[in-house]
Amino acid sequence: MIEHVGISDVGCVRSSNEDAYIVEPELGLFVLADGMGGAQAGERASRLAIETIVQYVREAAPIKTLESLVQAVRTANHNILQQASLNPDLHGMGTTVVAVLLDVPLAHIASVGDSRAYLYRAGELQRITSDQTWVNEIGRSLGLTEEQIHTHPFRNVLTMAVGARERIEVRSYELRLEPGDLLLLSSDGLHGVIQDTGMAQVLAGNGSLAEKASRLVEQARDRGGPDNITAVLIRRTEQEA
Ligand code: CA
In this structure, which of 7, 100, 123, 215 has its CB flanked by the most CB atoms within 10 Å? Predict the structure, then answer.
């Protein structure tokens, strides 16, 4: 059995929420997107990406493969570029995407940009996705430490986004979920504000998934909430129904 919850909060500084998420348990699909672009373009981009991915996966059902999930993200890229080309107000819009397609016990994961998927297993929080950011892809090879990466002025500079160009690099991952495993999807308004150790402490605590998700958002707000904050939690329960 799968338990899940999603939460999104505008934060304490921004006037609009360009993050979006969707949970479609009957499809086994969970998607988080963090949009960017002027005016309402960022919101359009994240929502359009999510709508496209849901539609693609729904039409592909019952096929649930990593390839189909990656193709869904590529289709979202195409749709965003097309919409942007039709409307000057939307020019340059883009979005991150992190998407999970469950075919229990398998979890297929696709990612573009710096939204993340984590696996919380046996008390340890592990990063599954690798950020497509300047600090991660270039800064790290120049010797930046984890702490420097977390605070670097270029930490938000993406090297890839859905809607950025015709051909994008979609990162893909596959893992086997054990009973009790928990997946966390997060936007950088969460993991850029709270360190992994802080998020692990919240996930270790008592309470429902919804309470844990609320606590993650509260902690990001307590640290100033400089950006939109979004989390999706997905857990394979210990007891199979
Ligand atoms: Ca963000």
Answer: 100
